[in-house]
Design goal:
The protein is an alpha/beta fold. It contains twelve helices and 17 strands. The strands form four sheets. The protein has a seven-stranded mixed β-sheet, sandwiched between helices. A four-stranded mixed β-sheet has the order 1-2-3-15. Strands 13-14-17-16 form a four-stranded antiparallel β-sheet, covered by helices on one side. Helix 2 packs antiparallel against helix 9 and helix 11 crosses helix 12.
Length: 402
């Protein structure tokens, strides 16, 4: 008999009752260090007092209006993001996939209104993850996500990640844009070299293309800058964000320059819930914290300390840990055992992580963790590696006995 919840997830048999900062608690009182953060969503941890207060206050006023009317919180958030980023305008959504859908439509419409209706193809990259809609799974190109859903939506040309010559070869008379994640999360915590991003910007300018960035996972302070592309010293034409911008509340946005957005006039796109008062209250509260003086500097310092401890673990457990990768607090541990076994061993030691491609375990803690959480992570990861080493020794002994 099918479960009342559609069985599209392999859920861990854990039920959490509450959270506090970087910690989650079950009804039985078990405590887990959360380095998953809702898959890079809870940038300020669980039940942050400022976010709770903002949501609670708004809940007593207005929940939903639709975009038939002005929404003060949305207007305030858009002004703040315009001031803090490259963007001149934005469209609010409920998720990253919706933000990417808007970005794809915007890129095609831009070329259409610019007199190039034939330009409707977008260059994307192997290993990318842009969401689960028909358009975004086609953009990502992962066969696992495409299987069984009929012909893939046309209009996407995939090339190897980081291969500039392949990008140049893929540009043709029908190319509209280049879509890339500055750091691939699902794809194995693979950071694009900053020089590669600069080269993509130059190619887009040379050929009249839009450069579209997917910063759904790597944005909102995750890499130690407000957005990851800032490390490369470039600006995109369009950028999709979500996850961290809501700190746990479903919020997304498609940011754009005035030029890139020129085709998105009244009636060309819409969302019933996008930019609703509850979401906007929380997103503004997130910005209150993330834009504070010193916050991003602290993320960078914390990342340095955590990476140092992870490097120590790699030296202590060379049979388990092969590589530490990533940027800021979007970090990956490439394991020499199946990454699912590492995630299970971490959970047995009271710590939560999430797998990715290339046999990587993602570590995505809240951005405001401190020394105590880093020490706790080291202790739990050390114990998890010890568990796995015992398993390896046991397997070796069984092999020798056979």
């Amino acid at each position: 008999m099918i479960d009342p919840i559609l069985p599209t997830y392999n859920r861990v048999n854990l039920v959490f009752e509450r959270g506090e900062g970087a910690w989650l608690f079950t009804k039985d009182g078990e405590r887990y260090l959360d380095f998953t953060a809702g898959i890079a969503v809870n940038v300020l941890g669980h039940a942050h007092p400022h976010l709770v207060a903002a949501l609670t206050e708004q809940a007593g006023k207005l929940w939903h209006l639709s975009n038939l009317f002005r929404i003060e919180g949305a207007e305030r958030l858009s002004r703040r993001l315009v001031e803090a980023t490259f963007a001149d305008t934005m469209f609010f959504t409920n998720s990253g996939a919706e933000a990417l859908e808007c970005a794809i439509k915007m890129a095609r419409k831009y070329q259409y209104v610019s007199g190039h209706p034939e330009r409707n193809r977008i260059i994307t990259f192997e290993g990318a993850f842009h969401g689960r809609t028909l358009a975004t799974i086609a953009a990502g190109g992962n066969a696992k996500y495409l299987e069984g859903f009929g012909p893939a939506l046309p209009g996407f040309d995939q090339v190897p990640f980081g291969d500039l010559d392949a990008v140049k070869a893929a540009i043709g008379p029908e190319t509209a844009a280049i879509l890339v994640e500055p750091v691939q999360g699902e794809g194995g915590v693979r950071a694009a070299p900053w020089a590669f991003l600069r080269a993509l910007r130059a190619l887009a300018d040379e050929h009249g293309l839009l450069l579209v960035l997917d910063e759904v996972q790597c944005g909102v302070g995750r890499t130690g800058k407000l957005f990851a592309h800032e490390w490369a010293g470039i600006t995109p034409d369009v950028m999709a964000v979500a996850k961290g911008i809501g700190g746990g509340f479903p919020v997304g946005a498609c940011l754009a320059t005035e030029e890139a957005a020129k085709g998105m006039t009244a009636g060309t796109h819409g969302s019933t819930y996008g930019g609703n008062p509850l979401a906007m209250s929380v997103a503004n509260a997130v910005l209150d914290i993330v834009l504070q003086d010193g916050f991003l500097e602290n993320v960078r310092a914390t990342s340095g300390r955590l990476r140092q401890r992870l490097a120590e673990l790699k030296d202590r457990h060379p049979a388990i840990i092969g590589e530490i990768r990533g940027e800021g607090l979007l970090l990956g541990v490439r394991t020499l055992v199946p990454n699912g076994e590492m995630v299970d061993a971490m959970r047995a030691e009271g710590m939560l992580g999430v797998g990715a491609a290339e046999n990587v375990v993602r570590l995505l803690p809240p951005l405001n963790i401190g020394e105590a959480e880093i020490d706790a992570a080291f202790t739990r990861l050390d114990a998890a590696c010890g568990r796995l080493e015992k398993g390896l020794r046991a397997d070796t002994q069984k092999g020798a006995a056979a």
